[in-house]
Amino acid sequence: SPVITHIFMRAAFENLGRADTAGGIGQGLLCALVINVFVYCEIILELKKVRTMKPQELLSGTDEALGVKKSRHFDRRKPVGFSPCAMAFRMMKRDKKNTALIILTCFLSIYLVNMAVVCFDNIGDMREKNYYWLGFDKHDVTIQNTGDQEDYEKVLDEIKKENDVKLVVKRNLEVGLCIPYEQSANAMVYENYDGLNMHVISGRNPKNKNEIVISNYYAKKMHKEIGDYMEVFLGDSTDSKVSLLIVGTCQGFYSMGKGVRIRSDLLMEHDIPLVCNEASVYLKEGADKDAFMKKINEKYHGKAKAVLREDMYDSIIDDIVNPQKAALGPFI
């Protein structure tokens, strides 16, 4: 069942950049346990009804229907095939149509339940893996601007000097640009992608200002590949048309999968105004996230706010997760 599930869901996982699926071993053991407990309970209930009866007495009066000549006397020394396998085999031979339907029903039931559990397992960790599903970088803490932009820049400079901090990168995930013959697109803009843990389906993230990563949606619709060039209009002006080298493809639910990734120095070169009110902070291994956030929020109250990455974009994750949980739970 996990193998067949993988075959049917491979395209969906690849579209989101996943090459693997849930193993299915845990789900399989759980299903096997539930089914066996149910079956054993049924057997116990039936045995209570017939525990004083002999197998020959159960078949008495039905021999003619079974194609066996009725006998008034039983030879108790003669071995009779009353093992579970023998009885099941005889029933399958007598009613081939129902046997085929039962096998098909079992197969579909196990497959559908397994697929639903795999989906349920995936949506269960969406909040922790929001970076993957929405398409931004896997950082530890986000620093948001809650005051003046100039003060915010100074705060970031000071945070970079903290002992627990490994990397600080400013970002803006909602920069608008236009793609010819398409609707306006959403660009995720980082000052640089060096050292970022940011997933791509293929290729890499931009290293130079003339490079771009496009979503899988645009790659398929516009028949673009890595190494091709893509023309975009920066900002609201039609005079800011640039041709960018495609160096990778990505995917995520953010902006319904219609997005691109570029560097901030591209916008600066063309005098496009850019305000970065968020920054990704990577902490050193072993650093206490809660203690770090408490320190930042107390020290820079009114200027900046530290938010755990897992708590970012809760509303988007809820819009994705809640309808699926509501449907999959009763289905399973």
Strand adjacency order, main sheet = 2-3-8-5-7-6
Q: For the terminal residues, how far apart are their CA atoms? A: 15 Å
Order of H and E elements: HHHHHHEHEEEEHEEEHEHEH
Could you report the average pLDDT, rounded to the nearest whole number?
83
Please tally the helical runs, counting DSSP H or I stretches of 4 or more residues.
11
The outline comes out as elongated
User: Could you give the count of β-strands?
Assistant: 10
Report the radius of gyration as a whole number of Å.
31 Å
Q: Give unreliable regions as ranges.
A: none
Strand-pairing-aware structural class: alpha+beta
Helix content: 40-55%
Q: Summarize the main sheet.
A: 6 strands, mixed, barrel
Estimate what percentage of residues fall within beta strands. Answer: 15-25%
What keywords describe this structure?
332 residues; alpha+beta; six-stranded mixed barrel; 11 helices; 10 strands
List the helices and strands and how they pair.
Layout: H1 2-15, H2 25-50, H3 55-59, H4 84-94, H5 96-124, H6 130-134, E1 141-145, H7 149-159, E2 165-178, E3 184-190, E4 202-203, E5 211-215, H8 216-221, E6 229-234, E7 241-250, E8 259-263, H9 264-269, E9 278-283, H10 289-299, E10 304-308, H11 314-331
